[in-house]
């Protein structure tokens, strides 16, 4: 899944999102992120921003947040609630109409062409409770538009338990790359996912059966540089997914 990070300078490129960015408060950085959803397949993803409507009121409405060249029949599946919504050509509707911060999602493109999904919002700089990581598998999405190193993820501080080998440690999986990391207690270091946790990727946290559940508390880095220092992407590039 290719990720495109777009600076505020490109606000004119996506007219449907202009109002969101213009009305955003002055203290937080505003930006866009686009990612490719492959044709005729499921793409894991998460929402990287905090979102506001034109009155700068917090919004979770998926029709305010999710944009792209979707066609009727495309679907979004909430992994945490195991429910989905469908695009009818103009709006998303179904079992839910609002996203949940911290949830992980899948987009199903039923057409024959890739779709570049686009979302715009503010960089979140407040502490986030990403939910309780129960024993077993937990789907989760990190609300951060920049790359996060595992040392900065807050997982160990939250209760993620390591071990002397992968079989004895909790693990964190990147659903998009099908790779994982674990914490080596013998060396006090992370093993795997050396490039960090990527923006918009969906994650799984696997809590070992011998360990305790924990609440993942994440303190965002406020990755403004990831948004404002990115190379400009032309609107035609965004739309084509090239």
Could you characterize what this model shows?
The structure is a single chain. With 242 residues, the protein is mostly beta strands. It contains five helices and 15 strands. The chain starts with a strand and ends with a helix.
Strand content: 25-35%
In N-to-C order, the SSE pattern is EHEEHEEEEEEEHEEEEEHH
CATH architecture of the largest domain: Sandwich
Record the strand order, biggest sheet: 3-7-4-5-6
Mean of pLDDT: 83
Largest sheet: 5 strands, antiparallel
Write the layout of secondary structure elements.
Blueprint: E1 3-6, H1 18-22, E2 30-37, E3 41-45, H2 62-65, E4 75-78, E5 83-87, E6 92-94, E7 105-109, E8 115-122, E9 128-133, E10 136-141, H3 155-158, E11 171-174, E12 179-184, E13 189-191, E14 202-207, E15 214-218, H4 224-228, H5 235-240
Antiparallel strand pairs: 1-2, 2-8, 3-7, 4-5, 4-7, 5-6, 9-15, 10-14, 11-12, 11-14, 12-13
């Amino acid at each position: 899944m290719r990720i495109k990070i777009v600076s505020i300078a490109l606000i004119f490129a996506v007219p449907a999102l202009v109002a969101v960015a213009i009305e955003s408060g002055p203290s937080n950085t505003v930006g866009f992120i686009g990612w490719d959803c492959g044709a005729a397949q499921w793409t894991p993803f998460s929402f990287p921003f905090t979102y506001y409507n034109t009155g700068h009121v917090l919004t979770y409405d998926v029709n305010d947040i999710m944009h792209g060249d979707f066609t009727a029949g495309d679907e979004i599946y909430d992994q945490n609630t195991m429910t989905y919504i469908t695009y009818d050509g103009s709006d998303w509707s179904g079992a839910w109409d609002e996203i949940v911060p911290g949830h992980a999602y899948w987009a199903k493109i039923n057409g024959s062409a890739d779709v570049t999904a686009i979302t715009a919002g503010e960089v979140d700089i407040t502490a986030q409770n990403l939910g309780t990581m129960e024993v077993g598998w937990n789907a989760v999405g990190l609300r951060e538009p920049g790359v996060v190193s595992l040392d900065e993820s807050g997982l160990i501080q939250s209760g993620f338990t390591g071990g002397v080998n992968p079989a004895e440690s909790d693990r964190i999986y990147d659903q998009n790359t099908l790779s994982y990391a674990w914490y080596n207690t013998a060396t006090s270091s992370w093993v795997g996912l050396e490039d960090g946790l990527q923006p918009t990727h969906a994650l799984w946290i696997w809590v070992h059966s011998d360990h305790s559940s924990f609440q993942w508390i994440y303190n965002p880095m406020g990755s403004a540089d990831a948004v404002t220092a990115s190379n400009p992407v032309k609107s035609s590039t965004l739309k084509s997914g090239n």
